[in-house]
Succinoglycan biosynthesis transport protein ExoP
Amino acid sequence: MNQRNLTLHSSLPKAADDSDSFIDIDRLIAIVIRRAGSVALCVAATVTLAVVYLLFATAQYTSMTQILLDDDIAKYAQDPTPVASAQQVDMQIASAVEILKSNELALRVVDAEKLQDNETILDPAQSPAALIKSGMKLLVSALAPGGPPATEDDARNARRQKAAALLQDAVAVSRVNRSSVLAVSFRSTDKLLAARITKAYANAYLNDQLNANFDATESASVWLQQRLADLRERSQQAALDVAKFKSENGLTSANGELMSEQQLADLNKQLIVAQADSASASARYNQFKSIVDLGPDSAVNNAAISSGQTDNTVIQDLRTRYISVNKREQEVTTNFGEDHPQAVALRAEKQDLTRQIYQELQQLTSSYRNEFEVARSREASLRQNIEHLTGKNSEADRSIVQLNDLEQRATALKTLYESYLGKYEEASQQQSFPIAKARVISEAGVPVSPSSPKKTMTLGLAIVLGLMAGGALTAFQEFRERFFRVEGDVRTILGLKFLGYLPLIGKPPREGKLFRPRANPALDPAEATADSGATFERIMRVVLEAPRSIFAETLRNAKLASDVMFQGKSDRVIGVVSAMPGEGKSTTAANFAALLASSGKRTLLIDADLRNPGLTRMLKTPPKQGLVEAVLGEVPWASAVKVDPVTKLAILPVLPNDHLMHTSELLASQGMFNLMENARKMFDYIVVDLAPLGPVIDAKAFAPQVDGFLFVTEWGSTPTSVVRDLLNAEPQIKSKILGVILNKTDMTELGKFTNFGGTERYRHKYVSYYTEETPKKREPAKAGA
């Protein structure tokens, strides 16, 4: 499956990331499917812990009551208070919450319900963790030096304080949304006790509010009564001091003011009126005097005075006549000339009217002058009186200042006394008001089911935590995923051609019967032993016993890659290498050579892993001579070759030699070169099983004589960085690699490591192309290829 037979790896571009989104949903789904077992394991672990917790946890019952903080309850007995701001309301509710949580209120509940002797409160059932903690405390107290024995009163008070502390720990107070309602709840192992203590808390809070109001008003009444007596005496004495000072200094008053002050105010008002009259008279006199001073000729033109300034109708009539005569005179002069008798008569009449108007203006000017002199005289008289009275009052200024000070003090004491008297009466009335500014709107009931532990929520939380832990474990596993899993890893990381997967032999697939060989060869020839029964005949016939399997198809793809690359070349040397030992390169080399031989090609398989000749150890009959002897010229190389009677595959083994030190020099020697030249003349394919690249440099030394390499790496085991670094360090080998084979592939898990759309996910559709060929007698599987 998943074969690519088109071009060589040198022309293969690296796979590009076709994901154009920030989050690859397909990849995430693939990861979830792949790591579903880890997630399920974490969920099972957390659910198990949750079940254990639920089995050993002590059931707790919670009873709740609700208290409304209502200032309107006392509105009929108290003055209305201004509307509080949101911040003030929050502070009031927060204060109520702290009062309910306080030690003082807990002590009141303990005393009211006699809880200092209640064993359910003092010695509740404890969890295993709490029991361990209590045991440690007892051990510490036993080792610590003891004090003097406590008295009975001290012991009773200690139990009382302990009960109050336990109540504080078990009570919960919270505000209901943004309302003025407080929810008070108490939890206990006894449902009846929980309801009783919750009711006791509500009653204790209401009584606390009543007692606080009563104590506050009582203390205020006592203090106000003492202050009122002192203020009454001081206010009376201040009033007497004011009366005595007035009588001693002759400071009589009327309507609350001194007589001298009233007289001075009246004179100032009269002076203001006189000043106005004098100014008005002066203005009229000066106006008319200026008109008269201009002479008779100008009197007529300046006599146009408004009626508001004078009420002399004579001037008005004379002026009217003058205007009429002047008009007639102009008409006659225009029509008949200036010398006309009528014009002369009219001019004489105008002069007479002018004289009369001027005389009237002179009379009015004299009259206004008299008025001006009278107003000025009156103003001067008022000024003299004010100056006289002001001088007289200045002598009493010092006395008035002292009098004002005494009156202010008397007024302040009187006002303060009246204020305190009102507060005293209000406090006296509120002292007997029997209602608190709070009320219970929801009575505490007996709980019917335990509130803790909550089984559904605990299990749900355990599942969520398990999923989170599974997600974290999955992320950790994915970040640590540094192995070759799918075809895309080979192309992306190494930039090499991918030839296919070699399944893990001996582990039957779950989905379809794709491949199940007759026998199960060893994972690697180096790991095989004589006791395991693994022979060379069995290991090299895996590809022959299942010719239509995934195993055989991958090796055929490798053959095709070599045919394409070496087209027209009669002899081909193909080396099989791996990065690390134990990756199955020897198994791959044996089966690849068997495939070539079974196709009719003259094939020679050389075991060139001189330090660890795994293929040679699998031969049924140990050889007496091999590759080393042939290279050194001790024996003809053809005499060291063994031939498999079934496949006609020629095999050149290696005798194990612990004293052979310079294996790389042997493989690069002239003798090895001559051997390969002779072998090329006799065989179409020469498959060489070389040592891994990581431990030794044998493959590097033999590389010049190899036409192409098949690189074998173990699926899900060999780190990608190791393979990449080794190949980058050996460009001579990397340039000749025909392709990469992923060995020991778990085909049942392969589809989980590819995204949607990957060919590995659709391998179940390839069943019709792969058949299971099972002989009549099957041997038990023991290892994988």
